[in-house]
Design goal:
Strand order of the largest sheet: 11-17-16-15-14-13-12
CATH architecture of the largest domain: Alpha-Beta Complex
Keywords: 2Fe-2S, Iron, Iron-sulfur, Metal-binding, Oxidoreductase
Number of strands: 17
Organism: Labrys wisconsinensis
Protein name: Rieske 2Fe-2S family protein
CATH topology of the largest domain: Naphthalene 1,2-dioxygenase Alpha Subunit, Chain A, domain 1
Oligomer: single chain
CATH class of the largest domain: Alpha Beta
Number of domains: 2
Radius of gyration: 23 Å
Number of helices: 9
CATH superfamily of the largest domain: Naphthalene 1,2-dioxygenase Alpha Subunit, Chain A, domain 1
Structural class: alpha+beta
Largest sheet: 7 strands, antiparallel
Distance between the termini: 12 Å
Shape: globular
Pfam family, one: Rieske
Cofactor: Fe cation
């Protein structure tokens, strides 16, 4: 099957022109979707959740990734574990999707029972010669990076995850995500290919005309502009903004807050970018008035003016602010359907109605996600049109899309397509 897919997909990869969007079939075809799941969601590191998704021993959370399913749980000793959601008897799913509280993992089919550490504890009617030690649950490679859980389903995970781990360990430490809690969660099924979801997230060319709520706190100039097309007043504003940005970054770095951009985007397996972004307006948080949504700050944070530490990967994007964090993951469900799951985090002791107002906390990204879902659907519909042909990326505002498309082609090639 891989060889068949490879021979069919390879000509599509060949047709991609540098600086242009992908050929239509790479967004729309079923065989490409299945190859994408295999390459990018089974053989690469992906973000799947948070330590605070399973705060107590016995808490379990199931994530489905195409035909694969994994269980994120906290064992009796308080350690994070990740297992394949497959009974070692005849392959039955142990847990349903979503969250649950368990004392042991019990297969609903024949009652094979596993400890939270994965060892098989009970297998009825298997005879006295049956060796339980050979039938523990299959573990999944995972890393907790500052409280963010990344997994790789491959037996040989890419080693360059270490760069992400080194970079984010220090940057995420003050937010103490392991001791946060999920204040709210939403799920959207976007009617579009997962690559369009990622492309939409990696540019702000569209922000000023589509995201009025986000642009109160988000500065679209951060993501590029064409200086030759700006009038003198706008050019002066852009230059002042860049000077402010440079000075603010120097100040933050001098005060011990890592802020400069770190990128690993091409010629790599693990794709990520992080930078501390300036927040517009009141400068505190991504809320309707850019002031903090929670009076109780995250982790050990003592300041509300340290901007937005953003992080993205090929299936996620995150924003970490003094008062709260927003984490988003995507999972392809089909060539034209993508799950977008967003969580809003606050300090674990923050109380709704006393420390934070839920609407203020969530309204900006609820609106933004809805607007983006409409844009992705319109993009996918246009790519299905016979008139579609790959268009040129703006060198000023869409350079990251070119990087992503280049990385995508390279990783498909590296995996035999």
């Amino acid at each position: 099957m891989l060889k068949t897919f490879s021979s069919a997909i390879s000509p599509l990869l060949d047709r991609r022109s540098q600086g242009h969007s992908l050929p239509a079939g790479l967004y729309t075809r079923q065989d490409v979707f299945e190859a994408d799941l295999d390459v990018f969601f089974h053989k690469h590191w992906i973000y799947v959740g948070l330590e605070c998704d399973v705060p107590e021993p016995g808490d379990a959370h199931v994530i489905d990734l195409g035909s694969a399913s994994i269980i994120l749980l906290r064992d009796d000793d308080g350690r994070i574990r990740v297992f394949h959601n497959v009974c070692r008897h005849r392959g039955t799913r142990l847990l349903d999707s979503g969250s649950s509280i368990i004392s042991k993992l019990v297969c609903p089919y024949h009652q094979w029972t596993y400890e939270l550490s994965g060892e098989l504890a009970y297998a009825p009617h298997m005879g006295t010669s049956f060796d339980k030690t050979c039938r523990s649950l299959k573990p999944v490679h995972f890393k907790s990076i500052g409280g963010l859980i990344y997994v790789c389903l491959s037996e040989a995970p890419p080693e360059d995850i270490d760069a992400l781990e080194r970079t984010m360990k220090e940057r995420l430490a003050p937010y103490d995500l392991a001791n946060s809690k999920v204040a709210f969660q939403t799920e959207i099924i976007e009617t579009g290919n997962w690559k369009l979801t990622i492309e939409n997230n990696r540019e702000c060319y569209h922000c000023s005309s589509n995201h009025p709520e986000l642009c109160v706190s988000f500065i679209d100039l951060d993501f590029g502009f064409d200086p030759e097309t700006l009038n003198p007043e706008d050019r002066e504003e852009a230059e002042k903004h860049q000077a402010l940005y440079d000075e603010r970054t120097r100040q933050w770095e001098a005060q011990g807050h890592p802020s400069a951009a770190v990128e690993q985007l091409v010629d790599c397996a693990t794709n990520f970018r992080t930078q501390r972004l300036v927040i517009a307006g009141a400068g505190e948080s991504q809320t309707p008035d850019a002031t903090a949504a929670s009076a109780k700050l995250m982790g050990t944070m003592t300041r509300k003016d340290l901007g937005d530490t953003h992080l993205w990967g090929h299936n996620c994007w995150h924003h970490f602010m003094g008062d709260h964090a927003v984490t988003t993951l995507i999972i392809p469900l089909g060539p034209d359907r993508t799950l977008v799951r967003t969580k809003w985090l606050v300090h674990k002791d923050a109380v709704e109605g006393r420390d934070y107002d839920l609407d203020k906390l969530t309204s900006v990204w609820i609106a933004t996600n809805g607007q983006d879902a409409q844009l992705v659907a319109r993009s996918h519909a246009g790519i299905l049109d016979p008139a579609y042909e790959p268009g040129p990326y703006s060198p000023f505002t869409e350079g990251q899309l070119d990087n992503f498309a280049t990385w995508y082609i390279d990783r498909m090639r590296a995996n035999g397509y």
